Amino acid sequence: MVAENDLVAIFHSIHRVMKAEKLLKLAGLDILLIPVPRQLSSDCGLAIRFAPEVGAAVLAVLGREELLPTELYRRSGKGYVRIPLTAPPEG
Fold it and tell me: Cα separation of 55 and 45, whole Å?
């Protein structure tokens, strides 16, 4: 479900993740609502998965709406690496 280097955005609440999904789809971005991977934890249980190629656009849309994720992770091997939200999501 989450490919190598895909990004996973974690939110505080189901309301925020659902609003983020709606905004990103309206913006025409290729994202997918997924269950939070077992290796990660979240009170909400859902996350948004997207490719690194659209990472900057995803964060720009969410930033404009003051809806940035609580945490951002990149799939790496069998695990996930946390990405600081101040770092560029691509690469």
Answer: 21
**Helix axes of 55-64 and 14-26: crossing angle, nearest 10 degrees:** 110
Compute how many other C-beta atoms are within 10 angstroms of the C-beta atom of residue 74. Answer: 19
Question: What CATH number corresponds to the domain at position 55?
Answer: 3.30.70
What is the arithmetic mean of pLDDT over 47-65? 97
pTM for the predicted model, two decimal places? 0.90
What is the side-by-side strand order in the sheet with 71-76?
31-35, 46-50, 7-10, 71-76, 79-83
Residues ≥6 apart with Cβ < 8 Å to 65? 19, 23
Number of domain units in the chain: 1
Domain that holds residue 55: 7-83
Helix or strand (DSSP H, E) at 26: helix 14-26
In a domain, 89, yes or no: no
